[in-house]
Design brief:
The structure holds 2 protein chains of 2 kinds.
Chain A lengths: L10 E10 L2 E11 L4 E6 L5 H9 L6 E6 L2 E2 L5 H6 L2 E4 L11 H8 L6 H14 L1 H5 L10 H13 L5 E5 L7 H15 L4 E6 L2 H7 L2 E6 L2 E7 H6 L1 H7 L4
Helix pairs in contact in A: 3-6, 6-7
Chain B lengths: L23 H20 L2 H5 L3 E3 L3 E2 H16 L16 H27 L11 H7 L5 H21 L5 H19 L1 H10 L5 H8 L8 H31 L2 H25 L2 H26 L8 H15 L16 H23 L4 H20 L1 H7 L11 E3 L3 E3 L4 H23 L2 H11 L1 H6 L4 H27 L9 H14 L4 H15 L15 H15 L8 H7 L1 H10 L25
Antiparallel strand pairs in B: 1-2, 3-4
The chains are: A alpha/beta, B mainly alpha.
């Protein structure tokens, strides 16, 4: 492990097992994310990536093990409890509220906050980061182009004033040029001090921006290393980057 | 349909197609469809039933209207083509007229055939309306041969007229349609206009009405002529001005727009308060019925339109409101109630109504709310029936009167001044109006509230709403409860108005009609829901109330169905669309159109700048 040794973990999983009915999805998953880090979780189809995210956010309750947020056990707390304390998700495929305006989408990101002036300040911050979002404010989110939708999705998540952003497959369903842009956006947000946890199939892209990474295989963490080491790992190159 | 996105081709430069350059297969299928529809309408007995209702005395009855409008509309529609940018387009010409004629002719042939069959075979066994009266009507009270022969030219002429409509200039088309519509409107709404004229007798209205209408009903010939000319003149001269006024109103922004809206609202409110004073009993009764459905529809609009929960058992809350108010205010309560229970005033009873309805909303909502989509719809459908069956059952019969229902329900006491009950429809209307005003205010406030925003998020994407930290279960339960309370108001007023409640006032059809009102009016749109209630309940009639067109009562479900299908296909945004919502719903057409014009950027070409004001980069520098 590198980077933030010494500091206390922001978000942590301790020996988490998750079941869907009788199916054992996550098996003793353990990792921690430190403040300000950019980390990624890699894995193929059905390896348990999305379930990991859902468990972190509280959409799924683990059968055993604990989820810790700022050192506090939040395993049985609600989603809103965790969102209020700094965990936010950017869902797979953006999933904007397509028939609501861009403004409403952003405001919904701040649903649990009531500090109006801070919310407005965050809105301004997002407009600064994505000027095009400001131009489209009263437009329906569904009428935006793919790139703009991505910005709104990130803006919406940032409106919750998160300490850590969970991103579910940000490259999913995007054209190659947009994937590149998308990762630029992620780096940009990261540079503002938000910890980011990216779940990806696109290992090359994810590792190129991440500090550290884990590889999940059928619900088990099989690799845990720095991004450079993972990129250099011949086993990973063979199985995820399609190189022989 | 999506007129906003279809470009009107300018007729001058475009080439016309030759008359025989037809899409014959389409012609034939439209013709056969027309024939089928006309035969179907004839066999629903609509023409015979409506024949008694004269529109223009003595030549034209509503019965014939029910058949005649079809070839004209089909003749017009057959050559209607969406013109997308980039597609070759042609000027309209003789080709369109010929197409209309042929379609009309085939349709007319359908009725000729029916006339022939009616005369020679007896199919009364499966087809109950296979009657001599129908034959008489179809042959225009002449002999059968005349009937068989006459439908061909009738179809031909009407179809040709429909086709000709393509060639008219916009102004001509408008003048003709306004002339026609004003005659038909005045003829069809005779009852309400006569009722109105009594209230405005001091303005000399009665003299006008006596000139316009024939004594036994229907317009007089000269009355029709006057109306046609008036309608035409309005279309030619007055309409532009009205249109400009509307446009300048829509151009208003910010505070002046808000002020204009407020003034408009005040005018409407004042009219609603003052107008009933001049209206007779029939119209006030009708307005009160419409108001009851406005209340119901506003409530369901919150559940379906805002929160996106498809509740098919909404009548349950209407029933709970009606029964609670009824039982608490009746002098003739079921024998199982203890003797010491007092008879309440309606106002006091309303407190219990609200509490019970809210509880019912929670109890029905709690198990249902965890389901989504189709499952939820089916389960609510079941709950709607369960509530009615409970009221009807032997188990609760001692309390609810079972099939006999609750009778002798007292009216609404207004501060000891007056008692509002069904015998005074005007007072009932004011009562309903009061509650509608509350419901409109509540809906309007909720839509703009935090809770309203949560509902819309849930409607759009429930999982993501959850991930935003919205407590979806609570928000959906709240929608159920608010909807339930609004419906219970309507039920409580119904009980006081009618003086009795029966289980069969709360059949499943009520749920469905309210849903149709909400969909036809425009989901999630307060004004639309009100217009929907006025149009459907006021004009066609509700599940148990006749509307303005009492003659149509038998066919109102048929018309509801046709209307619903047509709306879903052509106007999913509802009768009163708001501009933005129209765009959302026609987005595919809009995007397709824009793509054909080469104005759209796709995901792979995010640097395309044609609609982004030159701001090409996704990222700021």
């Amino acid at each position: 492990m590198s980077g933030s040794n010494g500091a206390s973990a922001l978000l942590e999983m301790r020996g988490v097992n998750t079941h869907y009915g009788a199916v054992h999805i996550l098996k003793d998953v353990e990792f921690s994310i430190y403040p300000g880090e950019l980390v990624c979780l890699l894995g193929g189809n059905a390896s348990g990536k999305s379930t990991t995210l859902k468990t972190l956010l509280g959409m799924v309750t683990p059968t055993s093990g604990d989820v810790l947020l700022n050192g506090e056990i939040v395993t049985d707390e609600s989603i809103s409890y965790r969102v209020e304390r700094g965990v936010t998700m950017v869902p797979e495929n953006r999933r904007l509220f397509k028939r609501l305006s861009v403004k409403d989408n952003l405001e919904l990101g701040a649903f649990l906050r009531s500090d109006r002036s801070a919310i407005d300040a965050d809105l301004e911050r997002i407009f600064e980061m994505f000027p095009r979002v400001k131009e489209r404010l009263s437009q329906k989110a569904g009428t935006l182009s793919g790139g703009e939708q991505q910005m709104v999705a990130m803006g919406r998540a940032l409106m919750a004033d998160p300490k850590v952003l969970l991103m579910d497959e940000p490259s999913m369903g995007l054209a190659p040029a947009l994937v590149q842009t998308n990762f630029e956006l992620i780096k940009q947000i990261h540079s503002q001090g938000v910890a980011i946890f990216v779940v990806e199939q696109n290992a090359n892209m994810a590792l190129s921006i991440a500090d550290r990474g884990w590889v999940l295989q059928t619900g088990r963490v099989v690799l845990d290393d720095t991004a450079e080491a993972l990129l250099a790992n011949p086993h990973l190159r063979a199985s995820y980057l399609g190189e022989t | 349909m999506s007129a906003a996105f279809v470009q009107e081709p300018s007729t001058e430069e475009l080439p016309a197609r030759r008359p025989l350059d037809q899409d014959w297969r389409k012609l034939l299928s439209y013709g056969l469809l027309l024939a089928l529809v006309m035969v179907f309408v004839a066999l629903t007995n609509m023409p015979v039933n409506l024949d008694r209702r004269m529109l223009i005395e003595p030549i034209f009855s509503m019965g014939y209207l029910s058949l005649f409008w079809l070839p004209a509309v089909f003749g017009l529609v057959v050559c209607r083509e969406p013109v997308l940018a980039g597609m070759p387009s042609y000027a309209k010409g003789s080709r369109e007229v010929l197409a209309g004629s042929l379609v009309g002719l085939i349709g007319g042939a359908g009725l000729s055939m029916l006339t022939f069959l009616l005369d020679n075979f007896n199919l009364r066994e499966p087809l109950v309306n296979w009657s001599p009266q129908l034959l008489e009507l179809l042959s225009f009270r002449q002999d059968t041969a005349f009937g068989i022969a006459i439908w061909l030219p009738i179809g031909l002429v009407l179809g040709t007229f429909g086709g000709l409509a393509h060639l008219f200039s916009a102004t001509t088309r408008r003048v003709l349609s306004w002339a026609f519509v004003s005659v038909i409107t005045f003829a069809v709404f005779e009852t309400v206009i006569l009722d109105l004229s009594e209230g405005f007798a001091w303005l000399g209205a009665e003299w006008v009405v006596d000139e316009l209408y024939f004594i036994r009903g229907g317009l007089t010939m000269h009355g029709a002529a006057v109306l046609a000319v008036a309608g035409g003149l309005f279309a030619a001269f007055g309409r532009d001005r009205a249109h400009r006024a509307k446009e300048s109103f829509q151009a208003l922004e910010g505070t002046s727009r808000t002020r204009a809206n407020a003034i408009g609202l005040l005018v409407v409110a004042a009219a609603l308060v003052i107008l009933p004073l001049f209206l007779g009993g029939i119209t006030n009764e009708l307005l009160a019925n419409v108001g009851l459905f406005v209340l119901l529809a506003l409530g369901l609009n919150i559940v379906v339109g805002l929160a996106g929960i498809l509740d098919l058992g909404y009548v349950a809350f209407f029933a709970i409101g009606g029964y609670t108010a009824g039982i608490l205010t009746t002098t003739n309560r079921g024998e199982s109630w203890p003797d010491w229970m007092p008879q309440f005033y309606w106002g006091t009873a309303l407190v219990f109504v609200v509490i019970l309805a809210a509880l019912a909303g929670l109890f029905i909502g709690a198990p249902v709310i965890r389901m989504r989509g189709d499952y939820l719809a089916i389960v609510t459908l079941g709950f709607g029936e369960i509530i009615r069956l409970l009221f009807l059952s032997d188990w609760l019969g001692g309390y609810t009167g079972a099939a006999q229902g609750v009778t002798n329900i007292g009216g609404v006491q207004v501060f000891g001044l007056a008692t509002v009950k069904g015998t005074d429809p005007r007072a009932v209307f004011y009562l309903v109006l009061f509650f509608c005003a509350i419901a409109i205010y509540v809906s309007w406030r909720l839509e703009r509230s935090r809770l309203g925003r949560a509902w819309m998020a849930i409607r759009e994407d429930e999982s993501v709403a959850e991930a935003m930290g919205i407590n979806t279960v609570n928000a959906k339960l709240m929608a159920f409860v608010v909807g339930a309370v609004l419906a219970s108001f309507s039920g409580a007023i119904l009980a006081a108005k009618v003086g009795s409640v029966f289980p069969n006032s709360f059949i499943i059809l009520v749920s469905i009609v309210i849903l149709v009102v909400v969909i036809v009016g425009g989901m999630g749109n307060i004004a639309g829901v009100i217009v929907g209630s006025v149009v459907l309940i006021g004009i066609l009639g509700g599940p148990r109330q006749p509307g303005l067109l009492q003659e149509f009562s038998e066919y109102k479900l048929l018309i509801y169905g046709v209307l619903l299908i047509w709306m879903m296909l052509k106007r999913p945004e509802g009768l009163v669309p708001n501009v933005r919502r129209t765009r959302e719903l026609h987005q595919d057409e809009y995007l397709q159109d824009a793509w054909l014009r080469g104005e759209i950027d796709t995901d792979s070409e995010h640097t395309d700048d044609s609609h982004s004001n030159g701001n090409t980069g996704v990222l700021p520098a």
